[in-house]
Fold this protein.
Amino acid sequence: MPLPQKTIDALSRAPAQTPGWSGRLLMFCGTLFLASIFVYLGLLYGYLPYLEGQVKKLKDQMQSFNQQVSLADQEKIVTFYSQLAHVKSLLMTRAGATPLLHWLEARTVPNLFYTKFSFNAANRQVVLGGSARGVPDITAQVRLFQSDPAVERVNLGNMNVGVGNLWQFDLTVFLKHPLTEDDLAATSTAP
């Protein structure tokens, strides 16, 4: 039996729908596109002028600070900063001498003090000059250095009586290797 005329008219008036997900995908992509355009325009006409205003404000502050500090004072500040940078670089390169000074301090006998110190890192050579109350103190110092495992050899020279009946001496200590934490930990006690 054929369909009634009312049903045929109702079916012919119904909108045609595309099957599946293509219509929804198109709507989703269009929404994302419009949202990205709004975000772009917001950044371009809202946030960018704000950032440019902040940069201008900071430049104005820097300019006012530059005007507050005279040119001579600016040069003094730059010179002082340069000196600090040089001192820092010197301290960083001289850090190798610090363990040596601690090692030397721990291995110096009583009644003996140093008046001259020189260190040649390339040869691992320490040149010391000093004064002692007597020859036994100098001898004890030489023996203490010779017994240290970090020392290769010790040369004693120019030993004589100086001002105030103090014995003057020169020592050259040759190290086997650059000092390490183990050498510092193995502290020999002075006699």
Remarks:
- The chain has a mean pLDDT of 84.
- The beta strands are 112-120, 125-132, 151-161, 167-175.
